[in-house]
User: Fold these one by one.
Assistant:
Number 1:
Amino acid sequence: MTPAQKKIIILLFRGLEFGYAYTPQRQWRALKGLARDWRKINQEELRKEIRNLYRSKAIKRQENEDGSITITLTEKGKLRALNYHLDKIKIEDNDWDGKWRIVAFDIPEKLKGGRDALREKIKKIGFYELQKSVWVFPYNCKNEIDFIIEFFNMRKYVRFGTLDFIDNELHLKKIFKLK
């Protein structure tokens, strides 16, 4: 996939992101990202790459009754966009609120690929493995974890919680360099 095609898919994904945004702040962030990404696209290259995306079945075109055209992501295109977006997920190390976020999962062996990908992603963003398939993190990350769980389609196998107390807190504070 060319860089221009990636940009187009990200633009379409931003529209999807706006539609799913449940707070005005998230809607505003999606719109700002959309405007920024749109300015970076060469219009001639855009037309050429849209044709290529049709051919690859990443997007589909629908003509509306009023003569306008709607371009939407197909399932294949959504998966590509999520992959690009997933790579950008980072959790800010804000002031620690004294609570621990826990992600625990019990994913069947038949979904081993998804389980391994989920494990790698939460490890990459900074979670610490407390026990086998139980991970801990000190900062608020519910939205990011929900996105990752939905991306890997593992909602029924994954639990997320917040703890006020954990008996090995001193050890975890050292790991995360907290005071």
Note: Helices lie at 3-20, 24-39, 43-55, 75-86, 112-124, 142-151, 169-176.
Number 2:
Amino acid sequence: MVATLNNLSPWAARRKARAQKGQSPIFEKAIFRSPDEIRNSMPVEGIVTTAIHFQKDDSPGEAKKIELQGKLKGLNTGAFLASRWEKPN
């Protein structure tokens, strides 16, 4: 199992921008990966999903709707990226 901030998400873009301005030193050397980068990092087929398509300023009700739309559309831009691989039997 691997989890990271998705390089394709607005959340990662904000953190990178803040790091470049010296406002978030913890993210200066952080490396965020895209779903394809994670998927291609292993020699076996895996499952890669994203979540958190809403923004931090969205109301809880709106966030729930945005998240559902992101899942239904199969968007790969959710802030949180989770991956799982299983050893072949």
Note: The longest helix spans residues 60-73.
